[in-house]
TrEMBL record:
This is Zinc-binding dehydrogenase. Belongs to the zinc-containing alcohol dehydrogenase family. Signal peptide: none annotated. InterPro entries: ADH-like_C, ADH-like_N, ADH_Zn_CS, ER, GroES-like_sf, NAD(P)-bd_dom_sf, Zn_alcohol_dh. Keywords: Metal-binding, Oxidoreductase, Zinc.
Length: 340
């Protein structure tokens, strides 16, 4: 089968490999769609400490069951499934508290074991969700990043309240759509790229560049400010500006991993009782809700997402890295498809 292997900073190699071996409790999935995540772009650039080459990345995916282990049940060969790539141990104290996303021994498909930037991938059956065979596989591949957004919003946004989002990349645009589904009356999205801000506007957001944010914040929220900000970028500029702009007693939800260490105005955080909340992946309930939103047709990827093949993927990563990519989201179709 064809696989795309991360070999080091800015090095992706398309090569051949044997199909995965089927282990007990697992299924072999013929991958139809695998999204490129911002964290994988960081890996491509050599900025990810958890992605160690050589590695087949790819943790946002949908496909069709090709083969199942004899002890596996609940599905049939030929079923279309979405896969939750997070594999908790199920026995540590974090898992016992219902927080598998911060399991002390967690594994993630595409990080700790081969991922879906390949024609076939092996996955635990317990991590699969059945969807209709005629569901758009590219849309279905958004379940994992959508679950990330649902988890972040639950940590900081109250229903029917306004929200500010840093970043109009895939996570920012999906967070926007989740917030609107939760009844947020106004959502302000901040980004430096006009094309991405245009995507946000078409999805129903107010939009601004960072230099306009003070005036825009005042006008959008009628001078009352905002109690929840979600940072989907994660660099010094966005973290510091969020701390300065959030209402006293408000929450800044930190999702983006753009920089590891940043100096922040922590005395201001203390004096204003600002809550800084890290948000990592999702719970099983978050993932199920993401699947349901997609099945219901509540999430759109029109205009801001497109597809490519495995052979095209290295050039797509390069374009995303240098800022020349035309779309916010790229989904790889390892077994073919209509690419745009």
């Amino acid at each position: 089968m064809d696989i795309l292997v991360y070999q080091g900073a800015r090095r992706l190699e398309l090569t051949r490999s044997e199909r995965p071996h089927l282990l007990p409790g697992e299924a072999i999935i013929r991958v139809e769609a695998a999204g490129i995540c911002g964290s994988e772009l960081e890996g491509y650039l050599g900025h990810s400490s958890v992605r160690v080459p050589p590695l087949v990345m790819g943790h946002e995916f949908c496909g069709v069951i090709e083969e199942m282990a004899p002890d596996a049940s609940g599905f049939q060969v030929g079923d279309k499934v979405i896969v939750n790539p997070l594999i908790p141990c199920g026995s540590c104290d974090r898992c016992d508290r219902g927080r598998p996303n911060i399991c002390r021994n967690r594994q993630i498909i595409g990080i700790h074991r081969p991922g879906a930037f390949a024609q076939y991938v092996a996955v635990p059956v317990k991590n699969m969700y059945n969807v209709a065979g005629d569901m758009d596989s590219n849309l279905a591949s958004l379940a994992e990043p959508l679950a990330v957004c649902i988890h972040a919003i639950k940590l900081g946004l109250q229903p029917f309240e306004g929200l500010m989002i840093y970043g109009a990349g895939p996570i920012g645009l999906l967070t926007l759509q989740v917030a609107l589904n939760m009844g947020a009356p106004k959502v302000l999205v901040i980004d430096r790229q006009p094309e991405r801000l245009a995507f946000a506007k078409r999805l129903g957001a107010e939009a601004a560049i960072p230099e306009e944010v003070h005036e825009k914040l005042a006008s959008v929220f009628s001078g009352h400010g905002v109690d929840a900000i979600i940072d989907c970028v994660g660099v010094l500029a966005t973290r510091e500006q969020a701390i300065q702009l959030i209402n006293p007693g408000g929450s800044v939800i930190l999702v983006g991993l753009g920089q590891d260490q940043t100096a922040l105005s922590m005395n201001h955080v203390v004096r204003q009782e600002v809550s800084l909340i890290g948000s990592y992946t999702y719970s099983n309930a978050d993932f199920e809700q993401a699947v349901n939103l997609l099945v219901q047709g509540s999430i759109s990827m029109s205009d801001w997402a497109t597809t490519c093949g495995l052979a095209e993927a290295p050039s797509v990563f390069a374009a995303l890295a240098d800022g020349s990519a035309k779309f916010s989201k790229y989904v790889i179709n390892p077994n073919g498809g209509n690419h745009t």
